[in-house]
Amino acid sequence: MKLSRHPASPIFLPDLQSPWQCYNVFNPAVIYHNGLFHMLYRAQGLDWISRIGYAVSQDGLHWNRLQQPILEPRDAADSRGVEDPRVVEIEGTFYMTFTAYGREFSGEGKPTHLGGGILPMVARSHNLITWETLGPIVRGEDNKDHVLFPRRINGRYAALHRRWPQVWLAYSEDLLTWPEKWMKPIYGPRAGQGWDSLSVGSNGVPIETEHGWLLINHGYNQERVYRMGVVLLDLEDPTRVIRRPREPIFWPEELWELRGDVPNVVFSCANPVVNGVVYVFYGGADHVIGLATCPLTDLIEYALHG
Ligand code: BMA
């Protein structure tokens, strides 16, 4: 099982005329809504601070972008950038999870990232362009790669997040507080020398299937090559892993995935399903955006029997 790289890839490039997105565009959220693909992408320009830009497309290949970012740093908590958005629609409202990278570290102990801290943030929108920040899932720890499930589970909002090195589940009644008593680890790096033996994290929004929540995830080993795999979680209790096939489904091969701002990276925050096809949009080497696809039925088959 392997995703097919769309031959038009990379499908989205830095805009050399635009100071905030002239160096890198990568790791986009993409949601399909009312017949259009909406992309919210991470961009870096002259000041190296990540902002989120917006672009729209009919086919997922040809894009029109807004000139100004739709989300940028506002205070000390995100002054070094807003990163890696993931977007979902729940009960008619859009939600974005993103990483705020700041100068200040707001927890116990030592900062986990050079120069400050990170916060796993949640924001809300009714139009995908104007966003209201709700707050972080947790504070004061190394926690990112968080993504909301597309519906409530047993009455509560649910999110995957990463308390390194484990991927965890969190629940909330209001998307503002995420009680510790409802948090549980799900899975972590796999023992051995395999592709995901050192670090793992979640990609785009979990895909609901009759067999369980289908997750595409990422991982790397000592070689620091980012690859993608799949995990199947129980529909009613997503802390229960049903299957986790051993082999990856996608890895860097093209020059623009092997070389860029950070080498050997395919990193995805988006896997919308449109007409039975899974569209995996991903950052190549933290520099450009590519697209790889596969029929949903093939991915389910692999998750169940691979
Ligand atoms: C991760 C994230 C991603 C990035 C990847 C590879 O930690 O920060 O944004 O694409 O590293 O550099």
Could you name the CATH topology?
Answer: Tachylectin-2, Chain A
3D shape? globular
Overall SS class: mainly beta
Overall tally of structural domains:
1
Low-confidence stretches: none
Number of separate strands: 22
List the helices and strands and how they pair.
Blueprint: E1 4-5, E2 24-33, E3 36-44, E4 51-57, E5 64-65, E6 81-90, E7 93-102, E8 117-125, E9 132-136, E10 143-148, E11 157-163, E12 166-172, E13 184-187, E14 199-202, E15 207-209, E16 212-220, E17 227-233, E18 241-243, H1 255-258, E19 266-270, E20 273-274, E21 277-284, E22 288-295, H2 296-305
Antiparallel strand pairs: 1-22, 2-3, 3-4, 4-5, 6-7, 7-8, 8-9, 10-11, 11-12, 12-13, 14-16, 15-16, 16-17, 17-18, 19-21, 20-21, 21-22
Beta-D-mannopyranose is lined by residues 27, 83-84, 262, 265, 267, 283, 286.
Tell me what the structure shows.
- Strand 20 and strand 21 form a beta hairpin.
- The protein is globular, with a radius of gyration of 18 Å.
- The chain contains 2 helices and 22 strands.
- The model has no long low-confidence stretch (mean pLDDT 96).
- It has 306 residues and is mostly beta strands.
- The chain has a single domain, classed as Glycosyl hydrolase domain, family 43 (Tachylectin-2, Chain A, 5 Propeller).
- Strands 1, 19, 20, 21 and 22 form a 5-stranded antiparallel β-sheet that branches. Strands 14, 15, 16, 17 and 18 form a 5-stranded antiparallel β-sheet that branches.
- It binds beta-D-mannopyranose.
- The site of beta-D-mannopyranose has 8 residues, from strand 6.
- Beta-D-mannopyranose binds next to strand 6.
